[in-house]
Amino acid sequence: MPEQNVNLDLLSPVKFLNRSAEVFPDKLAVIYGEQRYTYLEFQKRVFRLASALKKNNIGKGDKVAFICPNTPPMLEAHFAVPMIGAALVSVNIRLSAPEVSYIVDHSDAKAIFVDNEFGEMVASIQSSLPKVKTYVNICDVDDNIPLDGPDYETFLTTGSDAPLDIDITDERDVITINYTSGTTGKPKGVMYHHRGAYMNALGELLEFKIRPESLYLWTLPMFHCNGWCFTWGITAMGATHVCLRKVIPQEIYEIIQSEGVTHLCAAPTILIGMSVYAKENNLTLEDGLEIMTAGAPPAPAIIQNMEGIGATIMQTYGLTEVFGPHSVCQWQTKWDELPSMEKAQLKARQGVPMIVAKYMDVVDSATMEPVPRDGKTMGEIVMRGNNVMLGYYKDPDATEEAFRGGWFHSGDLAVMHPDNYIQIMDRKKDIIISGGENISTVEIENTLYNHPDVLEVAVIPVPDPKWGEVPKAFVVTQAGAKTEPEALIAFCKKNLARFKAPKYIEFGELPKTATGKIQKFKLREKEWEGHNRMVN
């Protein structure tokens, strides 16, 4: 540890736990079913995990992988692993065995903690993980021990609950490595640092209005950007974590009611499921609910539906490479009296940089010059500041490309409105160039969401012999709806410039990631098989 300095302290979100344990020792920190931990009990469990790891020769600079849903061990790992100077690798629980094998091996993890729902899958790839020396079984759903190693609670007993100092020498030490979804090539390991996680966690507390009396429901995967840094932020405020193993609308509403949940985060697809369930069961949120949404641009109709049952929606925007949220659609009181759809349209914008982020712009990717603030001219969103990753683990070329020109390049195309609020129009690879005209897939999707028969939609470019490419919409309809493709196309032509209307409509389920993002690349791959598509 560095010597004490009278006017300098290293920033690390791990320190939030010690403060809350001192201020709120008897307050509920964690709720999971019948399990209840106070902040003092939570802290002692973290100390035990940290010291048990040290006894297994894991320490500064090492990597520890967790394959675990949103249960208490996953939350404890966010403090215990970085406390000893190691880096936490939270693995997406929806990945296949080969994908998990690649991530664990590439990250150089020395230990792996596995919820027993995924134990057999990990057992099948053990031979491909020579760097892993310690296996621990997290026995949540049953007492099965599929891996050669202790169960989690037994592992904790090998440690001590005596306080441990935080073993970091630089606040830009790696705190976690989060692997991207790998939609193009192999997943990339995004390196977070202690300073960025500390700053982003505090920024979210300010924007989301978390208070000590808040109860936060874990509908957002902790493996996704470390739960957008709320793993640390909720703890910093001394609020209560309500853990949730599976995201099921009925269970969400039951827990909101029984525990008094005040806040949650969710991708737009989760909100769709929640709003449908509420409508089918005539539910309203009598005590209100604060919801932060991100992960994909939400349609105004989705926001309007959730606010119609009593929720308040806050739209944020970011990427794995910027610790989760980087901007927020900052609400202004002058908009309070607008009609509900106009308010929803404003809330659907990606907004302005968070207080702790500050640096964000929309630029011409070639010249790096800002685009006009006219709400029409598209450019790429770029960001820099404390909450930008250190880089991609063991991938200097990809890091250099992402940081060209001194900014992090998002790959998202957007416009900048005259009031300095950003609005995403598309991903670079998704923008449709039809007969020389740029068409935003997001604009078409937002239009279709206003049709009463549409539940979910994804629009992509598909090849066309005359125009090069044209829009095609993949639609999931509301239960019982009997709409035809022609009706939806006509609806778009009525509400958009006619050339922007999809030429084709296909009904069926949409491929999604574990965090609820629609995987457009899978739709594109199928439609473009045998064709070459040029992407700028």
Automatic annotation (TrEMBL):
Pfam families: AMP-binding, AMP-binding_C. Signal peptide: none annotated. GO terms for biological process: fatty acid metabolic process. Residues 443-517 form the AMP-binding enzyme C-terminal domain. CDD domains: ttLC_FACS_AEE21_like. GO terms for molecular function: ligase activity. Keywords: Fatty acid metabolism, Ligase, Lipid metabolism. Residues 18-393 form the AMP-dependent synthetase/ligase domain. It comes from the Bacteria. Gene3D superfamilies: 3.30.300.30, N-terminal domain of ligase-like (3.40.50.12780). Belongs to the ATP-dependent AMP-binding enzyme family. This is Fatty-acyl-CoA synthase. The lineage of its organism: Bacteria, Pseudomonadati, Thermodesulfobacteriota, Desulfobacteria, Desulfobacterales.
